[in-house]
Each structure stands twice: as C-alpha cells, then as structure tokens.
Amino acid sequence: MRVVGTAGHVDHGKSTLVQALTGIDPDRFDEEKRRGLTIDLGFAWYTLPSGLPIGIVDVPGHERFIRNMLAGVGAIDAVLFVVAADEGWMPQSAEHLQILDFLGVDRGVVALTKTDIAGELADAAEDDVREHLRGTALEDAPMVRVSAKTGDGLDELSEALDEALRALPDEEETGRVRLFIDRSFTITGAGAVVTGTLSAGRITVGDEVTILPDKRRARVRSLQTHGEQVQTAEAPRRLAVNLVGIDRRLIHRGDVIVCDPWILADRFAARLFAARELRHPLKQKGAYELFVGTAQTRCRLRFLEEVDELAPGSSALAIISTDLALPVIPHDRFVIRDVGRWETVAGGYVIDQDPPKRLSGADSYLDDLRAREGLHGTVLAEWILQRDLVMDQERLMMLAGTGPRQVGKARLDMMVDGFYFARGSREMLERRLTDALAAYHEAHPLAAGMPLSEAKDVLGIDACAVEALFAEIEEHRGVDVDGNVVRLPGHSGPELTVAERNAANRALRMLRDADASPPELDNVGLSQQLARALERAGELVFLTPSIAYPSDIWSDIEHRVVGFITDNGSATVSQIRDTIGTTRKYAVPLLEKLDATGVTRRKGDVRDLGPRGRDLAAKIAN
Ligand code: GDP
C-alpha cells in the first residue's frame, strides 16, 4: 500500500483535510483507546479515483512531525503538503520542507487550504508557496486549492495524488522484517500491543520476533491493520502487533521488531547535509540529537572530508556516533537537531553501518563510500561481496540491508555452506594461497608445508569460509592438505642443502651401524627438523621422538618379526627382543609401533600377525 504523509504549519488544516478526504479522524486515538474499541494507528486510509488504496499518516503537532515522517523509514511515498491560503508560507512550512528533503521525499501535492475564508489572499499565498518551493524537489508539484469545510477542490486533490502515486515504480520486496515501534500499550486481556510502520518484509501471526536493542524475544499473537485483524501483513504498512511472552513495560518507543539477525550500530558512515536555511555553518562539535525511524538519541559528528564546518545546504561524508545502538541499514534517512537551539540543522542517509574501527589512512575508505553510496539492493550486495570477496549470506543481507530475494540475485563465483564467493574470488584467493605457498616452500625447504592456521591467515577471510574454500580447492587438487600443513601439489617434500645432506648421510650411517639399537638422534647430530624432513622423505622411521631407524633397517626388523611369528605361531616381547637382538628399551615401543601399523596384533601377552603382517608373510613366502 502506498503511504502519504502530511506536512505543513500547525493549524493550517492538515487533520481536517485528512478527515475530509478519508472520513477518518486521525486524532481519535485517545478516545477510542479509552473505550477499548480498536487500536488506532495514527493513520487514515481511503481509495483514490483510480482504485489505488492509500494510507495517510497524520499525527498532529510540530514536534511529532519529524518523528512521524521518519517513523516509516522510507515508507513514505509522497507528501501532502498543506499551506493555509489565508496565512501563506510559515516557518514550520520551511522546516518541514527541509525535513522532507532530508528524507528523500521528492514527490507530492501541495494543498492550499481554507480557500473558503482566504478570499483574495489565496493568489498571493500561491505565489508565495511557489517561490519557496523553487529549487526544491517539490518545485513542480501540483498545487490544488481546497476547502475542507465546503469540500471544494477535494476531488481535484485526490486526482492529483493519484497522478503522483501512479508514476511510482512498482513496489518490490525491499528487505527483511523491520518495524520501528512508535507506541506500546496494554489492552486488557490481550497483553502488550505495539504500533509502528512495517517498512520491509512480512509478519505473520505466530512468528517469533526479536525486539531490539535489548534482543528480547516475543511471539506475534495477532495483527491489526486498517482496523482489521489479519493473519499476515506485508510492508509497507501501518500495523498494530499484539505480542505475547514479553512485558510491555520492557518495550519502548524507538525499539525495533525484527525476525532475523541485525547489526546494531552505534557508529555509522553517512552522507550528511547541512540544512539550507541554517544561520551558522554546521560544526562537528555540538550537542546533537539524531532521529531515525522512531528512535531518538544523542549523537556526535565527525566529518571525513577535509572540512571543519559545513556551509548551509552543502554536504560531506561523516561518521556519526550515537549513544543508542541502532539497527540502521544503508539508505536509512535521518534528521539531526541541535539540542540547544532545538532546530533541524542536518539530515542525510546511512551509507555503511559497519565502518572500519580505525580510520587512519581513510582515503581508500572515502573512495569506498563514494563508490557505494548510490547503490541499492542486489547491486550493493554485489559491491560489498566484491570488496570482501567472501561472506555468508546472512551477513551480506545485514550489510546491504536487503532481503534474501535481492541478495539471491547477486552474481557469484560459487556458494558453499551458505558462503557467497564474489565473482573471480575463488581464483584470486587460490592464487593468493599458492603464491604464499610457493614463497613458503622456498623459505622453508625442510618443512612439509605451511601450517594450516597460517595458510588460513594468508587468505584473510572468515574462518568458516576458509574451511569451505579449502575443501573446494583441495577437491580439484589446487593444494594438498596433509594433517596440519598445506603444500603445493608439486612440492615433493624437503629439499636438503648440501651441508644438510652430508649431515643426514653421516647420521644415517651411524644409525645403520647400530642396527636395532640405534643411539638417540641428538647423539648422531640430527636436529628434530632435519630428522622430520628425512621422515617425510621416507628415509627415517620414528619409534619415539628421540629414537628413529633408517627405513631399510626398519623394513628388515619388520621382516624378522614376521618371519619369527610365521615360524612359531606367536611371539612374546622377550622372544622378539632376542630375535632382533636388542633390549627392552627398544622392544616395547617397537612392538607398539608394529601393532599400530597392523604388522602384529596383540593378544594378551603374545603377538600374532596383523593384516599387514600377513601380507608381508605372503610376500616373503613367494
Ligand atoms: P492542523 O494542525 O494542521 O492539523 O490543523 P487542523 O486540521 O487542526 O485545523 C486547524 C483549524 O483550522 C481548525 O479549527 C479547523 O477547523 C480549521 N480548518 C481546517 N481546514 C479548514 C478549512 O478548509 N476551512 C476553514 N474555514 N477552516 C478550516
């Protein structure tokens, strides 16, 4: 449903006009609530001549206007700008126009009201209004003279609204459920009821929801919209939500109903505009209050560009820090008021609700912000993905502020375990990894490969995505993952320098000379690193961390043990010890290793042959 908001100086006839158009008194809330009849939504609705149903938001009072206009966050499609023909343009007319501009409302109809009492003043008022609208988004808005009292001009006004709204592009799914709460109260027998504008997504009776920022859980018991109970409601729409499982005293104006995870930001990057009619330039220092959705919080400004102050009407990229954490998304509109003078001094839109912690050397970040500020939906999701290369779907939706359908349209390289890989990212990451591995092999010729944890750091992507990526790269043999190390498939293992080779040969000779009872590695001048390299090269077999056999000796020992058991049916530890001519110190770990590798099999105090032992026995027999 299309939503129209009213704007205009107090007492210029907004509520009266809405009632004349719709037959609904937007002010009836208090009385009806007392009578417990229906939940008023500060909202009136009717059908335009073309059959298009529209809602009109009209909450009286100047202070409430700003909050009211923001309440829908993007849900207002057009404005009904009211100016009394007998009074003409007034200060609040100007402030409302400025706020509409900040909110990006660039479409609407001007109603010149009270023509029944304005007489000749109406012509002057019309000129005056035209003059003030010049150069603004409403410059070409149609202007209709009406009287709510006599009904003159009401049909033309509806026609004009119809025209303005028909020209809007089709509504499409804009994102995940978000509803800024504007009121909460208790209805006897029903419990907590909140009202607000559902600006995106769809809520259904029975849904589990979360109320931010406290992250309290509740369930939707019933929904009411336009005076009717409904099972499900789709954005944009004014809504009353009856919640169970939560105490209404824990819900406040400005809280937000969501159904999915959200980023709560107390710092975001934005395009900030200084108000056009400011008397002083906008400074970073100052006591400011930020309004977004129905939330309101103290905030601080930091201009990102090289400016100390903003001239009226100019703009800059800025970081806005807030006292309250807010579930904002890109393109959310906000308004900033000066707390001391209590006037609207700035406004703008959110660009990035997750700016880097440190902004030193922020030039590239500025470029980022400029590049993305005009992007929406799928295109923005693609841009973010291209920047970060890999991201899980949930986070991408949070950052782009879009729903699954829009994110789902993003062009990808691949998707694994819910992770989206940007176009070309897999190749790029794989190259990043293989380059690093090549350098690593070069720098550490004795190592079997790069430790897995280091390889993951090299990729610089989310730890869970790394797992998915590795599985993918390993599958097509881009790299070899071997236990805790990663290497290039061509990396055949350690390459020894001449000095290392000489040391290794010397040590192997000494070990071989000692047959089944070799000295400890330290005593033959083998470092652990060199010994492990020889193990990987298949030249050494470890028994314990300090004892190892040259592999030919080990193979000989295996043969002797298998031969003995084949001849005798089984063997005890001391028989083995004697057969291979060593001591208990070697025989015990040796048999454990033979058991572990399936050469022997332990049965109480004796051993017979394991599966590999039987294979060996068969080979020996042949
Ligand atoms: P709002 O503050 O802009 O919502 O203004 P209201 O709708 O409350 O109207 C303010 C006053 O102007 C009320 O006393 C209305 O009765 C009166 N009024 C509103 N529209 C008209 C109109 O078209 N003609 C006349 N004569 N009075 C009007």
Topology (elements, then pairings):
Layout: E1 2-7, H1 14-22, H2 29-35, E2 43-47, E3 53-57, H3 62-71, E4 78-84, H4 91-102, E5 108-113, H5 115-118, H6 121-133, E6 143-145, H7 154-166, E7 178-187, E8 191-200, E9 202-204, E10 208-212, E11 216-225, E12 228-230, E13 232-234, E14 237-244, E15 256-258, E16 265-274, E17 282-283, E18 288-292, E19 295-303, E20 309-310, E21 315-326, E22 333-338, E23 343-352, H8 363-372, H9 377-388, E24 390-392, H10 393-400, H11 404-408, E25 412-416, E26 419-422, H12 425-443, E27 450-451, H13 452-459, H14 463-475, E28 480-482, E29 485-487, H15 498-513, H16 528-536, E30 540-544, E31 547-550, H17 551-568, H18 573-580, H19 584-596, E32 600-603, E33 606-609, H20 611-621
Parallel strand pairs: 1-3, 1-4, 4-5, 5-6
Antiparallel strand pairs: 2-3, 7-8, 7-15, 8-14, 9-13, 10-11, 10-15, 11-12, 11-14, 16-21, 16-23, 17-20, 18-19, 18-22, 19-21, 22-23, 24-26, 25-26, 27-29, 28-29, 30-31, 32-33
Helix pairs in contact: 3-4, 9-10, 17-20, 18-19
This protein binds guanosine-5'-diphosphate (GDP).
Guanosine-5'-diphosphate (GDP) binds at residues 8, 10-16, 60, 113-114, 116-117, 147-149.
Task: Describe this protein's structure.
This protein has 622 residues and is of the alpha+beta class. It has six domains: 2-166, Rossmann fold (3-Layer(aba) Sandwich), CATH 3.40.50.300; 178-258, Beta Barrel (Elongation Factor Tu (Ef-tu), domain 3), CATH 2.40.30; 265-370, Translation factors (Elongation Factor Tu (Ef-tu), domain 3), CATH 2.40.30; 375-422; 425-487, Orthogonal Bundle (Arc Repressor Mutant, subunit A), CATH 1.10.10; 513-621, Arc Repressor Mutant, subunit A. It is 35% helix and 29% strand. The chain contains 20 helices and 33 strands. The strands form nine sheets. The protein has a six-stranded mixed sheet, sandwiched between helices. A hairpin with a 2-residue loop joins strand 18 and strand 19. The longest helix has 19 residues, at 425-443. The chain is elongated. It binds guanosine-5'-diphosphate.
